[in-house]
């Protein structure tokens, strides 16, 4: 018995006789070629073994459906069964022909037949294509889309959403805005996995699709839901509903499917353009920050060169003055010079110390950080500066109020910053004063407090405008310590209402922030 498969289209009524095995798809090497975006190049194959026939899914995009059920891989088919491949639907029939044997005949209602539209609908599709193609903003495009849909379908609520990789639905456009749309998980599953288009005529009847069964919004009288298909991929859906039962019919569903095929590339291209613009703006922001950082770096480098030049120019005459003062001191007895000698020597020594500190300041390197115990580092530096606080009869006392004392710092630079601040503080404290210090947590930072304060809310940065009138805000010691701390991503805070650079707060971040352009650190 000879058999054959025939694909018969309603418009036009053509037949495509095929032999076994029959390969179905869009590729050039298939036995049955279907020009349907929902069908893969090699979508399925029908085989005959004896008197039995089998259809096998070759991994097509939207699967194979036999009698309305999606097959997993292989399924037996018999005469009378319906087979759906993409948008094409076939009925498998066995018939005899003039030659000996039997033939298999398939009657199909294909996608092209379903999309047959009258002149008015074709004109509407043309107008939509011409009008919406010029909009590149998603919000404006959404308003225009729903305006067009409202003119055609008179919907009460509209919803356009995209599928995420896991199958979840991500709202894109809603009409009216912020309106809840009852798209159930069953609808999402049917549209995303099967590519079905769904029509609800009357929720009170028992013949509406299974996807609409279950608890429905009482306001829904009828609804349409179609997939968004682009490049043979289902990536979203369009949903419309009305309060009136029976407001939509199968021709409305077919018309919305046709319109959705226009919306799909427009929405996807607009979304990709918005994503590209977002990346562009992010890149501009990064470049702006980089430019700002480079300008600041160049400005700092210019200040450093200026300070180096000033230090060099001051050191030469100071060396001459210092030599002359020391020679005069040797030539004349101390009783003859008296206070004049002491004042000159003290001033020369002070200027020499300042010049040395300035040279150290302009040559501060970038931090080379590693995890350090701050409590141990502070205690060691207090001991190292013993001669300074002993000569002032000051009694430092350290209290550690947190067990979390490990932070990423450059130990040498942080020791220097601490000693500079300590020297500045010792200059302001009366002799014999206590010097309480504490280490505590402060959000994501470690705080070192020299002195005592009830609240640190009013404390501000060394270079804040509130401290501009304070003479000690221009201290070379504090400026050098401030640079070291800011290079670590930290801060140096002082009380603008205080009469001296005391109390002082040092804050150091517990983690590195390489994305911050103000930080130039390297991991050790």
Give the C-alpha Rg.
41 Å
The CATH homologous superfamily of the largest domain corresponds to: GAF domain
Count of helical stretches: 11
Shape: elongated
CA-CA gap between termini: 83 Å
InterPro entries: FHA_dom (IPR000253), GAF (IPR003018), GAF-like_dom_sf (IPR029016), HisK_dim/P_dom (IPR003661), HisK_dim/P_sf (IPR036097), Histidine_kinase_KdpD (IPR052023), SMAD_FHA_dom_sf (IPR008984)
Organism: anaerobic digester metagenome
Pfam family, one: GAF_2
Keywords: Coiled coil
Protein architecture, described:
- Pfam families: FHA, GAF_2, HisKA.
- Residues 22-71 form the FHA domain.
- This is FHA domain-containing protein.
- Residues 273-300 form a coiled coil.
- The protein is α+β, with helices and mostly antiparallel strands.
- It has three domains: 4-95, Sandwich (Tumour Suppressor Smad4), CATH 2.60.200; 119-275, 2-Layer Sandwich (Beta-Lactamase), CATH 3.30.450; 366-509, Histidine kinase-like ATPase, C-terminal domain (Heat Shock Protein 90), CATH 3.30.565.10.
- It has helices at residues 111-114, 119-132, 138-153, 185-194, 250-331, 334-337, 339-362, 374-384, 386-391, 411-428, 476-487, and strands spanning 7-8, 22-25, 32-33, 44-49, 52-57, 64-66, 69-70, 74-77, 82-85, 88-96, 102-109, 157-163, 169-175, 198-200, 222-230, 233-242, 368-373, 395-400, 406-409, 434-442, 445-450, 460-461, 491-494, 504-509, 522-523.
- It has a six-stranded mixed β-sheet.
- A hairpin with a 5-residue loop joins strand 10 and strand 11 (102-109).
- Helix 7 runs parallel beside helix 11 (476-487).
């Amino acid at each position: 018995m000879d058999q054959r498969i025939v694909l018969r289209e309603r418009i036009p009524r053509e037949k495509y006789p095929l032999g076994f095995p029959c390969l179905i798809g869009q590729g050039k090497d298939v036995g049955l070629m279907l020009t349907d975006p929902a069908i893969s190049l090699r979508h399925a194959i029908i085989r005959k073994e004896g008197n039995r026939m089998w259809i096998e899914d070759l991994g097509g995009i939207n699967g194979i459906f036999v009698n309305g059920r999606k097959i997993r891989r292989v399924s037996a088919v018999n005469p009378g069964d319906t087979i759906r491949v993409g948008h094409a639907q076939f009925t498998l029939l066995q018939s005899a022909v003039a030659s000996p044997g039997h033939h298999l005949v398939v009657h199909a209602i294909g996608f092209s037949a379903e999309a047959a539209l009258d002149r008015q609908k074709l004109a509407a599709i043309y107008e939509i294509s011409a009008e919406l193609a010029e909009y590149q903003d998603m919000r404006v495009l959404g308003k225009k889309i729903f305006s067009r849909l409202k003119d055609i379908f008179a919907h009460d609520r509209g919803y356009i959403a995209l599928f995420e990789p896991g199958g979840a639905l991500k709202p894109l456009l809603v009409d009216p805005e912020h309106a809840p749309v009852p798209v159930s998980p069953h609808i999402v599953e049917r549209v995303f996995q099967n590519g079905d288009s769904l029509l609800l005529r009357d929720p009170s009847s028992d013949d509406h699709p299974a996807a609409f069964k279950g608890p429905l919004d009482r306001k829904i009288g009828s609804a349409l839901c179609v997939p968004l298909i682009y490049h043979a991929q289902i990536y979203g859906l369009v949903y419309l509903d009305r309060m009136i039962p029976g407001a939509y019919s199968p021709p409305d569903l077919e018309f919305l499917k046709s319109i959705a095929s226009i919306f799909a590339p427009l929405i996807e291209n607009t979304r990709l353009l918005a994503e590209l613009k977002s990346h562009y703006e992010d890149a501009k922001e990064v470049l702006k920050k980089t430019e700002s950082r480079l300008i600041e770096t160049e400005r700092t480098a210019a200040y450093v060169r200026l300070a180096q030049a000033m230090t060099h120019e001051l050191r030469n005459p100071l060396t001459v003055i210092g030599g002359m003062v020391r020679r005069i001191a040797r030539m004349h007895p101390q009783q003859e010079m008296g206070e004049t000698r002491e004042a000159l020597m003290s001033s020369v020594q002070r200027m020499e110390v300042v010049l040395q500190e300035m040279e150290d300041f302009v040559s501060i390197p970038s931090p080379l950080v590693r995890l350090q115990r701050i409590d141990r580092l502070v205690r060691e530096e207090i001991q190292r500066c013993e001669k300074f606080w002993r000569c002032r009869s000051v009694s430092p006392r350290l209290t550690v109020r947190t067990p979390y004392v490990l932070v990423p710092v450059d130990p040498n630079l942080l020791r220097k910053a601490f000693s500079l601040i300590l020297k500045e503080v010792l200059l302001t404290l009366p002799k014999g004063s206590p010097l309480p210090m504490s280490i505590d947590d402060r959000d994501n930072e470690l705080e070192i407090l020299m002195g005592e304060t009830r609240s640190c809310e009013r404390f501000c940065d060394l270079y804040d405008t509130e401290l501009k009138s304070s003479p000690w805000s221009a201290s070379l010691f504090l400026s050098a310590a401030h640079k070291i701390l800011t290079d670590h991503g930290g801060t140096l805070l002082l009380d603008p209402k205080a009469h001296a650079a005391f109390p002082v707060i040092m804050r150091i971040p517990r983690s590195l922030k390489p994305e911050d352009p103000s930080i130039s650190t390297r991991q050790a």
